[in-house]
Amino acid sequence: LTWLTKVDDSPQDRRGDGYNPHLNVLVPYGFIIPGKMNRIKQALRAALQEPDLIIHYGYTREPARMVHALKYITRATFLDGMWAPDVAASIYNFHNAQVWGKWDGEPAWSLDSLEGEPELADLPDPLAVESLESGICPRCGKPIDWAGPFPIKALAGMEKQDLGAGYYELAQVRAPPGMDLVMMLRAAGYLGPVGIGELCGN
User: Fold this and answer.
1) pTM for the structure as a whole
2) What are the CA-CA distances from residue 49 to residues 5, 9, 61, 64, 75 (Å)?
3) Domain boundaries, the chain
4) I need a labelling partner for 199 at 20 to 30 A (CA). Which of 17, 81, 121, 147 fits?
5) Rounded alpha-carbon distances, angstroms, from residue 176 to 154, 182, 201
6) In the chain, which ranges are continuous DSSP H helix?
């Protein structure tokens, strides 16, 4: 496991109001020799048109250090929305870790290679999560108008299916005769916004 870090974090850079972004990259690759690393650094500086770009490189084969690097790089650092409410609003639903690329080789592992009985019925649906992340309903394919996050405690006692990544699908129920949908949801403990419209086709 190899990681590259773009850092502008020397003590003198901490002074003032300058914006000093950090970009961490984990790469499943062998040790990069110094000559090749220097060529990579030069290419990055040229591509980003940043001749003073500082790049730190590290390599490890120790599982504990790999896990530490993964946890460190993907940790949340903006922990309180009151620090900067306008920033908090602008990054709502932002995902700090992204994965991209194409794997053309043999699979590194598969469910069949895992020991024990696979409990596929209990696994989240990755396609549903991908669809939700794109703002599309995974059931009917229509765009989703998000109202905002909802506390998971408020869903206690409600019939729901875990779709993964913090998304839950609530059972589609209709209000009994004489009770409208809003009243029924309030009675069930849901206090969030309610959009009345055509139910999902599923």
Assistant:
1) 0.35
2) 17, 19, 33, 36, 28
3) 1-77, 123-187
4) 121
5) 21, 12, 20
6) 34-48, 63-73, 85-90, 126-133, 181-187
- Least confident range of 15-19, 132-136, 150-154, 178-182: 15-19
- What's at 188, amino acid-wise? A
Terminal Cα-to-Cα distance of the chain (whole angstroms): 43
Enter the tokens of residue 177: 């005769």
Going from the C-alpha of 56 to that of each of 48, 65, 76, the distances in angstroms are: 16, 16, 21
3-state secondary structure of 177: coil
Matching residue, tokens 């599923």:
202
Q: What is the dihedral of CA 22, 25, 31, 34, to 10 degrees?
A: -40
Residue 45 structure tokens: 């500086």
Residue 194 CA, chain-centre distance (Å), reads 26
